[in-house]
Amino acid sequence: MDEEHGAMFNMTKIRATNGSGKSFYANHLCSNDYYSEHEKVQGYWRGELADAFGLRDKVVTSEEFSLFQRNVNPKTQGKLTQKNMPGGPRFFDFQVAAPKSVSVMSMFDERLVEAHRESVRIAMAELERLAAVRVRDGENVRTNNYETTGKLVYAEFMHDTSRALDPQLHTHNVVCNVTRAGDGRYKALETLEMCRAIRYAGKVYHNEMAARCRELGYETVETRDRKGNVIWYDLACVPADVMERFSKRRRQIEKAEAEFIAEHGRKPTLSENNYLSTSTRTDKMLTSTSGKVREFQMGQLGHQEEEQLYAAARRAKEHDPVTSSLDHERTVEQIRNVIDELYERESVLKLDKILAEVLNRNLGRIKLQELKKTVKEIPELRNLGGNEANPYYAPQFVIERELSAIELVDQQRNVFDAIAPEFQAFPGDRSREAQAMLIHGLLNSKDRFNLFRGVAGAGKTSTLQEFCKGLRSGGVTDIYLVAPTNSATDVLKQEGFEQSQTVAGFLLSKQKPPAGAYVIIDESGLNSLREGVEILKLARKNNYRVLFVGDARQHTAVESGDFFRLLEDYSQIQKFSLTDIHRQQNAEYRRGIFECAMGQHEQAFERFDKQHFIHEGKQKYLEEAAVKYMEYTEQGRYLNRAILVAPTHEECDKLTDAVREKLKEAEVIRGAGRETEVFRSWNKPKAWLKDASNFQPGMTIGFIRNMKGVSNAGEVTRIEAVDGKQLVLSNGKRIFAKGASDFIDVGEMRKIELCEGDLIQFRVNLKAKKIYNGTLARVSADPGKVEILYSDGRPRELIDMPENYAAFDYGWVTTSHKSQGRTAENVVVAAESLDRKAFYVALSRGRNEMSLHCPDKEHLRRSLARRTGERTSIHDLIRNREIPPNALLPLSEKIRAQKAKILPDFSYKDIVKRLKRTADALKRLVSDRATVRKMRQYRERLAVQYHAQEQEKKTENLFGRIVKLFRKSVPAPEVAQEFVPEEIIPAPRSRNAELWKICDCAWHEYESKRREYHALFGRGGFELTETEISYLEHQEHLRGLGKAPAQIPDWMANWKTVAEREAKRSLEAHLRRMFEKRWQAAEQELSAMKNMREAWWKSREQKFELPEWKESIQFRKTQEERKFSGLEPLELPDGIANWHDSAEISYRNLCEAKLRKLKSELEIFVKKGFLEKLPEQLRLSEAEKLLLRCRKAEAEAKRLAEEHALGVLEEERKRDPWTEDQKDEILELARKGAKVPGAYMISRREAEEFIESVIGPKAAAVRREEHRLRDPAVFTGTKEPKKQQAILRFHTAALIAAGKIANQDYAAWKRMPVEEQIRLILAVPKEEREPIIEKALQEQQAREGRQRTRSRRSGPER
Predict the structure, then answer these.
(1) Would you list the DSSP string of 526-553?
(2) DSSP state of 1278
(3) Strand 146-148 versus strand 132-134 pairing type
(4) Are strands 44-46 and 91-97 parallel, antiparallel or unpaired?
(5) Which are the contacts of 85, defined by CB distance < 8 A and separation ≥ 6?
(6) Which of 185-199, 726-740, 1013-1027 has the lowest mean pLDDT?
(7) Strand 545-550 vs strand 449-454: parallel, antiparallel, or unpaired?
(8) Which of 1186-1217 are b and which e, b meaning 16 or more Cβ less than 10 Å from the residue's Cβ?
């Protein structure tokens, strides 16, 4: 037997697919966890079904075991069950282990072995009562219903040693996968109820074993866990160190579990635990004998220990039996204590849960059968029916609350006028049409109570703000918002809802809202059934109108009863829904959250996984979550940008450590840490706190509110002793547990390190400092002060840390329950497993991104499919057909039986046969002459008596009436008349009444059948056909005339044909509606994408013109064509669904283009000297700011330059005035109409610039060149006068020869000034002048060349 120290009763499926099952029989059942050639453990066949095979109390053989494994009947050798189920489990091994102290003492006292054997059989008998088969025929085809058989056949093998050769008394009850149904056929066993009740079976074993140990003379002591819960009992005579020494096998399994956690990052499941137990066994068992094993075990005990245990066994045998069973009154008290505790958080429970808890608290002191009998006698506990062996039970107050909640709502419909039917919500905003329609519906409602379901991220807050405007426009001035917590009311007040209070304050405060007020219950999904019913009653009493706002798929109240879901599912309350999600910006993220809101968690998981939102990290998943958190918060600089969520305290602690390490590296938290102790609650029910017997010395008590004269809220103390119903505290005070249950909590102290910058979260309200459960604060550098934060992370105020306050913890990580109602840019979730509510709530907190980290995706997926997070109500059980509908009738069993006789059950009778039978009886009655004669005689007798009485009333006086009271009545004499045969004419009124009764009964039966069939196979609301309506109208017409009803039509007899036709019609109509809804949803989704894209584009920092969305235009055109053709809408293509990515790219491209343009402008400013250089990494916003600064600097420089230029210009005009030529030319231009400078005298530069501006740059350049050439030195290229004269003469002669200048007298030309000579030359245009001069130069050079040639030739002759 492989078991944990605390797992006394468990089950393992044995498939035995290899071989014929003989190896499992030989290696694991017949061997006492070690191999001995001559010693085998004998097993015995047990169970009620063993008689059918002739095996009861017989020794188990390998042949029989193998036959059961191969699905063969060992008696007939034929097939055992109809299906072979290859690969399915063939056996279920229910293993029962004795407490370690009993196993140790069994070596010294054989009586304990027999006590164990008998206790196991009693526990197995209780499990056998729950054996069942699945029912899959008739009305059970689509249900999980099963038939309880109460019959098993199983092999019982008892071992006394573990694989580590420790003393371990345990029994294998190997149940064969077969039972016998009510029809006598053998079928596969359904173990669901057996597995659910396995804790109950374990407690039955513990209770029986503890009682037998006391009867054998042993003293027992309870063994509790660290939270004070009773686990099992141990024998007081066995020392703890001895039990630990003989627990080597348990340590092997714990080591294997630790290795599994280190490798996979999560705890093993039950099946994985079973695998670890088997995998840690050695393949080869140790070879030994029972004598050697016992010698080995005794050798591990010291001599004194061995003597001590022998002496304890002797004392027990000599001691008188100790019996201390509870009497009836004490048993009733214990049951009521357990009921108060269990039903504080649950509405319905099965009987085994109640019995198990009562047994656990009174191990060995209560008789099982007496306990069962007493439970049935508790008047406030109602048996709801269901499985006869394990029925559902609920307290009477739960039944009354569920009925009251629905009745109070249904009775208050159409009791008011509409508030503001003309109010227009969100005028002109097409993106809020759904919200506007919802507000319009609420303002038009005439009911007292309305329900508003808004999914996470749908914009409930903005909708309520607009709704309140509508209420005020309709004359409602008193509007109150009620939230579940104080921190939630603070958030509501920040959002403009000033008149906000908690649910507790609303219900308990003496100052109630005035009559006629409108009350909005926010997050109503967190209201318990008790709170909800009290709100309903208060609303009717004070004439309030109430709107319940919430989401049933999010977390519910800790207290029992899901009030919001009860109204939504089972009442006639008018429901308004808001399912368009606006919070998530990413389309796939938003769609996944929508699927969660609709209950499609598997699809959401697939979508998130496909989009890489879910990350599998094995043992590093918490570290990876911490890294992602640091990435979202930019290394801890912006902590308000992300929320960190983990579902359990253990994961919260580990994730907090990982995040704090990262934050220390980033120096977000810094300084030397100081160690402090904080209080962590065990979250015990209030009923548990009321019972002083649950407390133990050494437990820590925390105060959740001020208790005058004892302690203040947030402080802690320890329990020194428990004195009756009083608790003695370490601060010297005494308190009664029952009276203090509203002020205290129980838990444990733990040490944490606090550094400057650490985030903490308060757990207990301190209203004087406006500190509430959930308030966040940051640790300051001063150890005595903390900085309180608003819900969005903004600092609120710096306060002194309350003295002795210990009810706080780290605030870096929050649970999914605490995160409900919060929103951040991003959310990081780290979880080993999640239920559906936690999955939905935690993942929907982010706007932009979500990152879910887990050790094993498949494990997370399985937990999501298995754990719904829903709590069952009585109405749920009725809907699921687990209990009968009359379970909710608030009547006693006696009255129910009487009512059943008065109201016969027509549910499963054939209406046609019944009508025919009734009609035949009537015909026989009116056809029997003797019967008719008796009826006539009886009627005539009544007539004579009536006539005589009337005559007496007329004649007798008061005295005669008094005398008549004392006179015996004399029957009236019969009037003898001869019987004359006559035609039998039945009384028409009497016969019509009977026919109308039959007809009405037939119609009601027909309608109920139609409605039931429609509920199963139809869609939408049930409606009568025109034929049926005409039939009813005709019948009412006949009834009004006093005539007999019309004949029952054939279609009523053939109700199923009509029902099938109408169900088909309703289904087709439903499909059409769904088709239209899908198209409407598709169009809304496309419009939403477009609106979100436009809104996103407008919200960007850079305001660019929105580019055309070609994908949307083409897709809309395709959709219109498909709709016209009657085809289903297409899913949004990636280009539209992922519009954010394309919009980001477009926006980024525009930003980059603008940045390039800005950089080019900035480079000009660098050249101008306004910037030293451009930064290497330059963002667009920085570039815009930089360019703006440069332009301002340039403008400033220009202004300064202008001021400076005024002074410089005056100096320049004096120093370098304009020339006469410039003056003449400007005057000439003025005569031509040019606007000349206003100054009397300007500088040469100014004159030049003015002339250029008038005649143009090209002409001005020519003019400047001419003026430059008028300088002889410039024109001739020499300063020597003679050379200048020669060059000018050459140029003039060339131009005269070319005819460009008139012939000049040489003497007169020579007398001209040089300037005049140059002006004469320059008068010829340059394009004409330069070719002439060039040609003249070439001719001159040619002449000089010829002359030099002649000189060389004539040189010798000379």
Answers:
(1) G--HHHHHHHHHHHHHHT-EEEEEE-TT
(2) -
(3) antiparallel
(4) unpaired
(5) 71, 177, 188
(6) 1013-1027
(7) parallel
(8) bbeebeeeeeeeeeeeeeeeeeeeeebbeeeb
Nearest 5°: phi and psi at 290?
-65, -35
Q: DSSP 3-state assignment of 119?
A: helix
CB 131 within 8 A of CB 113: no
Per the CB < 8 A criterion, the answer to whether 409 and 572 are in contact is yes
What are the beta bridge partners of residue 885? none
Write out the H or E segment, with its range, that includes residue 737. helix 737-740
> What does each C-alpha distance from 840 to 103, 555, 820, 850, 1142 come to in angstroms?
48, 9, 10, 12, 28
Ramachandran angles phi, psi of 412, nearest 5°: -110, 40
CA–CA separation, 733 and 709 (whole Å): 9
Block residue for tokens 């253990």: 650
Tens-place pLDDT, residues 679-693: 999 999 988 999 888
Reduced to 3 states (helix: H, G, I; strand: E, B; else coil), residue 347 is: coil
Q: Answer for the pair 205, 119: CB distance below 8 angstroms, yes or no.
A: yes
Q: Are the beta carbons of 656 and 752 closer than 8 angstroms?
A: no
Distance CA 290, CA 1109 (A): 85
CB 698 within 8 A of CB 683: no
> Model confidence over 368-425: pLDDT tens digits?
999 999 999 998 899 998 888 899 999 998 999 999 999 999 999 998 999 998 999 9
Angle subtended by helix axes 1139-1168 and 1055-1098, to nearest 10: 0
Distance CA 1275, CA 1266 (A): 9
Name 776's bridge partners: 761
Question: What is the signed CA dihedral for 511, 512, 513, 519, rounded to 10 degrees?
Answer: 140
Structure confidence by residue, pLDDT tens digits, 1153-1199: 888 888 888 888 888 777 777 777 777 777 888 888 888 888 888 87
The angle formed by the CA atoms of residues 179, 182 and 187, to the nearest 5 degrees, is: 30
Which of 749, 763, 745, 766 minimizes the C-alpha distance to 701?
Answer: 745
For every residue of 1135-1200, DSSP letters joined together read HHHTHHHHHHHHHHHHHHHHHHHHHHHHHHHHHHTS-S---SS--HHHHHHHHHHHHHHHHHHHHH
pTM as predicted: 0.65
How far apart are alpha carbons 176 and 680 in whole angstroms?
47
Q: Which amino acid is located at 190 in the chain? A: E
Helix (H) or strand (E) holding 1040: helix 1026-1041
3-class state of residue 209 by DSSP = helix
Give the pair of three-digit tokens for residue 1302: 């008139």
How far is Cα of residue 565 from the mean position of the Cα atoms in its chain?
15
> What type of residue sits at position 421?
P
Residues 497 and 76: their CA atoms lie apart, in Å, by: 79
List CB contacts of 1295: < 8 A, sequence separation 6 or more. 1301, 1321, 1324, 1329, 1332, 1333
CA of residue 1217 relative to chain centroid, distance: 89
